Structures are given as structure tokens and as C-alpha cells.
Amino acid sequence: MNDPSALLTTQIELQNAIQTLSQYGLKLSTKWAAEQLYLGEYTRLSNLLSDPKDPEKPAEDLPPLGLWLWAYGKYLGGEKRKEEEIGESQGSLTHQVTNHTLPSIISALSHLSTSPSPPAFPTYALALCLNAQLKACAPTSVRHEKLLEQTRDALVKSILAFKWNWSAWRDLACICVDNACIHSSVESSLSPLSSHYMYMFFLSHVFLEQQQNDQALQVLESLSQQFPNSADLKAQTALAHYNLRDFDRAQEEYVELVEKDPYRLEGMDVFSNILYVKEAKAELSALAQSASNVDKYRPEVCCIIGNYYSLKSHHTLAVSYFQRALKLNRNFLSAWTLMGHEYVEMRKTDKAISAYRRAVDINDRDYRAWYGLGQVYEILNMLLYALYYYRKAAALRPYDARMWCALGSCFVSLDRRQEAIKSYERAVITNDRENLATKKLAKLYREEGDVKKAADCYLRLIDNLGSSVDAGSAEALLFLAQYFKNIHNYENAALMCSRLLEYPGPEKEEAQALLRDIRSRRQAKS
């Protein structure tokens, strides 16, 4: 059967048969039909659809489906060979391994780039290959700029021809996030779809990738009205709340998601992160058990179990599960980052650095890995390196106070106090929930002799903490009492002292002494 059209007809018949047989539960018949298609034999499929005179080209007059099967089969065959070569190569040489089929596929499909209305899926195959070359290209090169334009155009044309290919939308989102310079051109090109729900899904994905979580939630809320039962939308909403560190709301969303789809594993590793942060051992144990019952050989499940053991301080066991996740999928980002965290706990800084570096190699937008690298180098007292990595994390999460606090801490250690003050000020205006930046900033202002700004910080601190008094607020109250006394505001000074009278510490005695001094000053004044 060398006739490409006859081959395609047979393939379509067998594909339809597989679907029907599977629906009726006839597993043996389904397996037989699938075997006739040589499913997974990508190179063989591509060869059958190649030009007999030139194996690097598709057969003449292939319909769009045939052209797609030729290109995608060749691409997947090349990817399979690339993975094999990576497994055989050593260390840093893995970055030099490429898919050798890309140039011939791009050459064969290049005519689609000039066609006004090319077929959707062959054009997507062209975009896949161009995007693979784009990822391997130096970002500052002229070739990168050309490949970026070609990849963008191919993806946009493919989407306009068939708007429901979510893979194409995701690839387009990825290059948009990495290359802000193409945002306006993509928006303009996709204007015919600007009110379509697929475009809204695309927007929510881009917003989440860019850590613009409030904007993502607005889009997701709008989509939820149109797709009220979508598990994917529920998962994305939970992820947005997690990114905003609204762990209670994120947990509620994930609990509802599990109730709706108890067999879902995608994204459940993020749910386990939330339970880990909240130290919910019972809930995390239950999640690990239920996920393991569904499929214990999924990377997500290994990460959930790893988080459970980490919460119990069994760090060696946790690492073993993160390593298992990476054996199942060596590019599973969460596993690399979480393993880095474990190595930090175990004080194995060299292994932590290696794990975090692998994470940023996979996705250089993973702020957790950049932040982790900063922490490791700060532990090693290599502060300039730590500063570099913290800046990377802050650039990705500019509205996360923790990033700016980390920068401030580095600047203090380097005795760059003015830069430290600016970093802590930035942390304060980006929702300093733990009040860490406020405390540090007040201390810096005191050391710099700016008592007015120090007092403002301490006032904000006690306002945030409410009526409770702990070590941090006791220090603030004592400073404010002294500050108000010095500016002759005896009423507020006495108020600050009175809040310390129930606090069991040396601050109580100092407050009592201040109150006596304030009374004598008032009497002298009267």
C-alpha cells in the first residue's frame, strides 16, 4: 500500500474503528486495530507519506491531513531520537542535542508561510518546528528575531484557520510571555477572535504565566459564567489564588475541584503545596492516599507524597519521591524546585543549587527557583550572587513582599543601607502581610536617626497587629511612647505605655517608669 491516499483512507477507517470498539469495551479488538496503525511508530508513518524520490519531502498532492501526519510523524520521530541522545550524552552536552528533522520539515512546509489561508494543522506543524528552533537560539541574535516573527505568524495563521487547537494557543502564549515586543502585533492579528471564548482562555493563561493574577481572575470569572462546570477553570482559579498567597480561598477551590472530579491529578501538586504551607498534615495525608490510589506513577502524585514526607521532616524520603517524579518526567518543574527546597533543609547547598538551576533551565519564569538560588547563596554568604538571583525573582514577582524583603536583607548585609531602605519600602507597599518589612524598615530608620519615619513604621505595625502585644509590637510601643514623650504628646505616650502594662517583660518596667516621668512632666506643666 504505497498510494498515500489509500493509506490515509485505511488509517481513517481504523481510527474510527478504534473509537467505536473502545466505546463498546472490546479491548482485544481495540488493541488489534491500534496495532495495525503502528501507533507510536512516528518515523515509519512519516516514511510512508514521504516522496519516494526524496525521503526528506512529503509525497506530492497530500491533503492537509496527510501533510500533517507526515510533518508531525517526522517531528515526533526526531523528538524521540533527541530524547535518546540526551539519555546517552553527558552533563552539559545535553544542551547541544537537537531534533535533526526540523530543517527538512520547515523547508517542506515553508510555502505555507506565504499562503493567505493555509490549512490549520500543517501550519501548526510548521510553527512547532520554528518554535523548537527559536528556543535553541540566542535571544539577542538577529536569527532569533526572524524566527520569533515566523513562529508568531505561523501560530496566528493556524489559530485563525482552526481556533479550537489549545496547543497552538499555549505555544503562542509562551512566546508572548517570553517576548513582550510581540504583544501588540499578536493582539492586532487576533482581533477577529477578540470576543471569542478561546481568546479569553488564552488571555487568562497569559495573565497567569505573567503573575498578573488579579487580571487572570477577572477573565476566569467571566469565563466561568459561560462554562460553569469546567474543572479546568476551577483549577486555574485556584492557581491564581495560590499565586496571590490567598491560601484559604485556593484551598476552598481545590476542595470543590476534588469533589467535582476526584480522579483529577493535574495541578494537584499545587494543592499539596497549599496544605504543606498551612501545615495541614491530615488533609495532606488524605490527598496523598487518594492520589496514589488513582495513579501512583504520575509525577504529580510523587510530588504530593514528597510534600507529605517533607512536612513530617523526613527529608531523605521526600527527596526520593521528587527523584521518582523526575524519572517519570525529567522536565517536571515542580519536582526540581521542591527537591531544591529539601536540599536546603538538609544543608546540601551544592545539590540545592543544581536542582534550582535545572528548574530555571526548564522554565526561566519560575520565580521560586530564582528565589531558592538567592537563599542558597545567602546561606553561603555569597551575597552578590544572592542579590543577582533575588533581583531575578523580584522582576518576576514585583508585587510579592518576600522578594523585596530578601533584597533588603542582602543590601543590609552588604552595608548598602539606602538600597535596603528602598527595598523594604517597596515591600511595604506590596502587601507586607507578615509585617517583616515594616519592622526592618523601622529599625533602619532608627539607625539612620530618622525617628519620624521610624515612628510612622511602628504606628503602621501596631495598627496591623491590633490589640495583641508580642515581642515585636512591645518594641514598637516602647519606641512610640518615648517618641511621643519627646515631642510633648503626653496623651499618646501614656496610651502606648498603658498597652505594655499587661506584657510580661522588661518593657513593662520601662513603660511604668515612662508613665511616672509623664505624670511628673504633666504636673510640672500644669
Automatic annotation (TrEMBL):
Keywords: Cell cycle, Cell division, Mitosis, Repeat, TPR repeat, Ubl conjugation pathway. Residues 41-238 form the Cdc23 domain. The keyword Repeat applies. Pfam families: ANAPC8, TPR_16, TPR_8. TPR repeats lie at residues 299-332, 333-366, 367-400, 401-434. Signal peptide: none annotated. GO terms for cellular component: anaphase-promoting complex. InterPro entries: APC8, TPR-like_helical_dom_sf, TPR_rpt. GO terms for biological process: anaphase-promoting complex-dependent catabolic process; cell division; positive regulation of mitotic metaphase/anaphase transition; protein ubiquitination. The keyword Nucleotide-binding does not apply. SMART domains: TPR (SM00028). This is Cdc23 domain-containing protein.
